[in-house]
Amino acid sequence: MKKSKNRSKKKIQEIFVIDEEKNLVFDSEDKVFNFFADPIEKIESRYIENRKKEDFSDEEQIPMEVYLEETLAEPDEIWLMNEFFSKAPIHVFMKNFVKDGVVFDYVAIVFLSSKERNPTFVLSHFPTKFKETADIFRTEELIFNKDMEIKYYAGLEGDSLSEDDEFSLGLFGSMMRLRNEKDIPLKEFKNFLDLREETIGNPDEIWRKTDHEGNVMVTFIKENPDNEMGAPFYVVVTVEEENTEVHTLLFSFPTNDESLVDRYRQGENLQAEEVSQESSH
C-alpha cells in the first residue's frame, strides 16, 4: 500500500496549494501531511485489516504504481466518502486492469480541489486482486461509474440504454471494448442523433441473429460515406419481441471503423421492407 502523495500543481516558494476555495494552503509539505494525518491512518488501518495474504506484496506493488495516473485520469468508478473526514470530503477512484492474465483493481483515495475537481493530494493508493478488498472503500455515495457515463453520453430518448436496461448496458459495454482507439469518442455520440432515424427508416442493411440466450437481435446499418462529421457508418441495435415483428430499440452508435460494423453483419441478411420497427415506448 502506497502512502500519501502530494499532487498539488502549485508550489511557489514552499507554498502548497491543495484547495484555494477551502483555504487549504500550506507553507510546508509536512503541514499538508499533518492535515490529512487522521484519514491516512484510518485508510491504512482499514486496508491492513482486510488485506489478504495472497494479495500483492509490498515489493510487488512498487512497479505497479504506474497504474495510478491512468486510474486518476480514466477511472471506472468514483466514490464520495463525505463522512470519512470531517474537515474535507475524500474521493475514491477505482479502475480495473488485466496484466499478464492477472485481473486487479487499482484503488486511489484522493482529495479533489473544489474548483477544478482535480486530484491535488493522494492519501493512499494500492492494487488488489480481491474484490472484497476494493469493496471496503466502496462506501457512502457512488458518484460515477461506466454505466452512468454510457447512459449520459449514449442513452437517447426512446432507447433502452437511457432507461438503465441491464441487457442494453451489457451489449453496449461489449461494443465499447471492441472499438478502435481512433473511433468517434463516446462524448460525441449525441451529435449524430439525426442519423438514428435515417438508419431505421432507410437502412442499407438489416441483419437478424438469434443469440445464445434465444434473443432475436435485429441490427440496422446505414452507410454515410459523405458525412462531414466523420461517421461513415451508423448502427442501430434492436431486439425482436417473441412471436412478433415488433422491435425494441436497445441502443445505437456512429462509427468510422468498418471492422466493428462487420461484427454486426451476422446471421440472416434481410431486406428493409421485411422488418417493421417500433421504439421501446
List keywords for this structure.
single chain; 281 residues; alpha+beta; 2 domains; six-stranded antiparallel β-sheet; 14 strands; 26% helix
Describe the structure.
This protein is an alpha+beta fold and about 280 residues long. It folds into two domains: about 1-140, no CATH class; about 150-275, no CATH class. The protein is built from nine helices and 14 strands. The strands form three sheets. Strands 1-8-7-6-5-9 form a six-stranded antiparallel beta sheet. A five-stranded antiparallel beta sheet has the order 13-12-11-10-14. It has a three-stranded antiparallel beta sheet with strand order 2-3-4, covered by helices on one side. The protein is elongated and about 70 Å long. The N and C termini lie far apart (about 50 Å). The model is unreliable at about 275-280 (pLDDT under 50).
Give the secondary structure arrangement, pairings included.
Elements: E1 2-6, E2 11-12, E3 15-19, E4 24-26, H1 29-35, H2 37-50, H3 58-61, H4 67-73, E5 77-81, E6 90-99, E7 102-112, E8 119-128, H5 131-135, E9 141-145, H6 146-154, H7 166-178, H8 193-201, E10 205-210, E11 216-223, E12 233-240, E13 247-255, H9 258-262, E14 268-270
Antiparallel strand pairs: 1-8, 2-3, 3-4, 5-6, 5-9, 6-7, 7-8, 10-11, 10-14, 11-12, 12-13
Offer a quick outline of the entry:
With 281 residues, the protein is α+β, with helices and mostly antiparallel strands. It has 2 domains: 2-139, no CATH class; 148-274, no CATH class.
